[in-house]
Amino acid sequence: MRTSRWLALGIALLVVASAAIVFGTIHLGLLASWRGLLGQGDATAVFVVRELRLPRIVLAALLGAGLGLSGASLQGVLRNPLAEPYLLGVSGGAAVGAVLAVSVGLTMALVPLAAFAGAIGAVMIALFVAHATRSRGDPRVLVMAGVVVGAFANAAIMLLMANSDASTVRNAVWWMMGSAANATWSQVAWLAAYVLAGGAALVAMARTVDALALGEDSAAGLGVDVERASRRVYLIASLVAAATVAAAGLVGFVGLVVPHIARRLGARGHRVLLVASALVGAVLVIAADLVARVALPPAELPLGAVTAVLGVPFFLVTLRRML
Amino acid sequence: MITFDRVRVRYPRQSRAALDGVSLAVPRGSVTAVVGPNGSGKSTLVRALLGRVTPTEGSITIEGVDVRTLSRLAVARRIAVVTQREEAAFPITVREYVALGRLPNRGAWGRDTQADRAAVDGALRQAEVDDYADRTVDALSGGEWQRARFARALAQGGEAFVADEPTTFLDVAHAMAVFELLGRVAREGRAVLLVSHDLNLVARFADHMTLLHEGRVAASGTVADVMRADVLERVYEWPLVVTRDPAVGSPALVPLRRMRGAT
């Protein structure tokens, strides 16, 4: 990828982040925002910038980065341009785990682990179903299996809700719609830990993913232990996706769209692709969250709905191209 | 040199062994071809060599070392393979694709060394793909793609070079180019194992030939030892004659038609 494109990505990140600080129910000027960031001036502005908007922007950036990383590595390992955590049911499974964890009263830092357990369960079911049809090579079958697992996860959440009090229901609905609205700095901190650690592990495996993207036989010929390496990438990609679900619920299609944009920008080997996908994802989700906040004031749109509106047409075009 | 010593491989839930007591030597500096009908065990032979299936009996060695004692990476450092089929799922440039051949030779965080770059440049030249090194692999014709795959395996280095059905989808000119490249690779000192359906081209390029039939060696030796009508007719279960190619003098197989009166 050319240096100018990296630079453009960096500038895009700065621009959307600045816009997301300035715009909102309370409109702050650029200068007021800047002063608020530095802790100067009007106390309300300082609070809005530092405690409401900034954590939300950083959370959105981490969500996008995590989903981009997860999607790019899943697409590579599965050799499937339609792969992404939401469509593979990973996110749905994670949401079930998270809703369960919250309803039994686990602390927030452990919710990602419960989400992870749910995600792994979903991955295993989807892979097993696709494998059982003996068409693991057909990318569409795996996506179909994933979508069905995701639908099952949705049903499970609704069943959990049926017999719950109002606050649990609100919680579960929030998870199913996806939102960065409740961002706090502590939430940002633990999501950052998961995304950075998972991202570093995935980048370290990038060459292996390059080999896996050539197919099992070729990867084996290059000395890759195909089963073990694929499993490891699934696990890490699922962990990162599960952490984003625990932090903000189901935000679909980001993992699908982002790697394709990164490839269009010239990112090809997975090492470059993963880093570029993290950046593109951050830009995209900050922008989507800004749209969610300001499109229909004073109401807030669910973030997951905004990304789906962007992602579904994209999915259809990609599917069309594959047939 | 690669040696297969009485190798037996049996897949689960199969009544017949895929390979049964197969012995075979692939010396350096020459092309050794393995031929045989569909299902005769050719691909299993390659899979066993690469450690994708484990023989239940017998052993496979490379330069005297049993491959079972080697890690997958160590095997990949010694044996480069052009697999039967491969499609790149995502477009990368030919140069990036060829550079993937260096994967067994460096760690996960390893940067390109001088030696890596030299190996990639050399492989691009040797396989004659340097003209389109900066094109993406999805924009290549069948012949160009096959040469790029050879370049990747050449960049991988090692003492042995395996090509599994390298000419299946190629026209005459591209098939010839691939076989000539294999010959050059052998003469540079590698042990070349060629698995192929194309008996006539194999007969012109191979130094040694082994014919497999239902997992056993049906004939082995020089080209003349294997390209015999009685042997081939029995294995392929089809009437045929073996003539001498009038232009180059190598044995050539001509399958006959079964219809009465037609030849």
Could you please describe the fold and organization of this structure?
The complex is a heterodimer of chains A (323) and B (263). With 323 residues, chain A is mostly helical. In chain A, 77% of the residues lie in helices and 0% in strands. Chain A is built from 14 helices and no strands. The radius of gyration of chain A is 19 Å and the shape is globular. The two termini of chain A are 29 Å apart. With 263 residues, chain B is an alpha/beta fold. Chain B has one domain: 3-Layer(aba) Sandwich (Rossmann fold), CATH 3.40.50.300. In chain B, 32% of the residues lie in helices and 25% in strands. In chain B, the strands form three sheets. Chain B has a six-stranded mixed β-sheet with strand order 6-7-8-3-9-10, sandwiched between helices. Chain B has a four-stranded antiparallel β-sheet with strand order 2-1-4-5. A two-stranded antiparallel sheet of chain B has the order 11-12. Chain B is globular and about 60 Å long. The relative contact order of chain B is 0.17. The model of chain B has no long low-confidence stretch (mean pLDDT 89). The chains are: A mainly alpha (323), B alpha/beta (263).
